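Morning F.,

Quick status update on the modeling queue. The single chain you submitted on Monday has been processed. Sequence for confirmation:
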Amino acid sequence: MVQSQLLPSVTGSRITDALDGVELVVFDFDGVIADSEVLSLDTLRDALADCGLRMPLEQARSLFLGKSLASISDYIACHGTEGASDGFADRWQNELFQLLRTELKPMAAILPLLKSLDKHNVQYCIASSSSFHRIRLSLTTMHLEDQFPNLFSAEQVKNGKPAPDLFQFTAEQMNMDPSACLVIEDSPHGVRGARAAGMRVFGFVAGAHLNDIQKTHGDLLLDAGAEHVLGSFAELQSALTNYSSD
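C-alpha cells below.
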C-alpha cells in the first residue's frame, strides 16, 4: 500500500466531502480493477521493439498508459518501420493474453469496496480503453465476471481517451448525469477525458506499474484534473463509511 505521506493526497474528510452527490462510480480497468499494467507494458515494449521502436519503460508508460489499441497502432504506423503495424495487434495481444490467463491478479481490496458501494446504493461500472475481449478475459481470470454487469469499451466510441467520448457514452448508457459520476483513473489521459466529460475524478496509484513513481505520477494525475489521489481502495471504502455516518 502507498504511504499517504508520499502522495499529494488529502485527508479522509476531504475525500468524504467529494463524495457528496455521487451516484455512479466509473472504474478504469487496467491498473485500477486489474493489476495488469506491468504485464501489459512489458509485452507491449517487446512488440514495439519488433516494430523497430525500442523505448524505455518510462517512455512507454507516458505514451501509452490509458490509450486504446487503435491509438497505439496509429502511433506505430506513424513512427515504426514500414508495414510495422500490420499484424501488431494480434502479435501483442496473443502474448499478453497468455500472461493474463496465468499471472493476472485483481487490485487489492476491490471486493470489499464493491460491497461497500452496494451497501450505500452507489452504482458502478467499468469504462476502459481495452477491448471487450481483454476486459472479459481478465474479469474471468480474476473471478470477478459476476461483479461487473455494466462494461464499456473504447471500441464503442469514435475517439478514445483523452477524448471525453467514452465517459459521455457511459453516462448516457447508465442514465446518469455526468456531474453525479466519480471516475477512478490511473492515467492522465483518462483523467483528462473524464474531466472533459464533466465528471469528478480520483487518481489511483496502487498498481504495481507505479511502484517506483507513486509521488511523481500522483502529481501528474492532479495536474491533469484529479481532485484527489488514492493510494488504495481502502481509502475510498473508509471515506464511504465516514460519508454515510455524517
